[in-house]
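Write out the 3D structure for:
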Amino acid sequence: MTARHIDATDKTDGSHVVKILWNENDSERELTVRMPAAGTDATDRVDVDLLPVPGENSATTMDDAVAALEGFLGNNKYIHIDGDDVRSVCAGALTTVIRVESGSSTGIVEALDGRFHDSGVASDEVTGAIIAIEGPKSLQLSDATAIVGGVQKRLTDKVEIIWGLNFTDEDVLRATVLLAIQQK
């Protein structure tokens, strides 16, 4: 099961739209991701409506989101995140993406702290979070839970958090966090 994506941009409002496709239980599944154009309202016609990361090109935010979602939905998962998880957290909200990598869980938590601060997102605006952790097969569950705990401490107790873990053949540890944010 490998995820792939296609550009499905509709030129009518200037938003960039990507469809992520994967097979699950012998049927093709789909998630729609959109980087809204300036002044465009969020819509229920997409599964993930992205909020640009301050100081980051919107194309980079889209690329990071697509790469993360393809990773969530691909194979070789230890603790799996599926399309329904993404929809339950991100539907009807704006979503920002934070991706970091390090050689240790402590390094990941420190990098996430910095990126949370830089994002300008207030913890009381966050309604849900998805945390995807990728690391070597030697990664301990305590390392993964330390990363989840590092994210959790930045958010309120009311935030729904879904996390997953994927083992890779690389020595680097990566964490991708999708934060669903209340629309104003």
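The longest strand covers residues 126-136.
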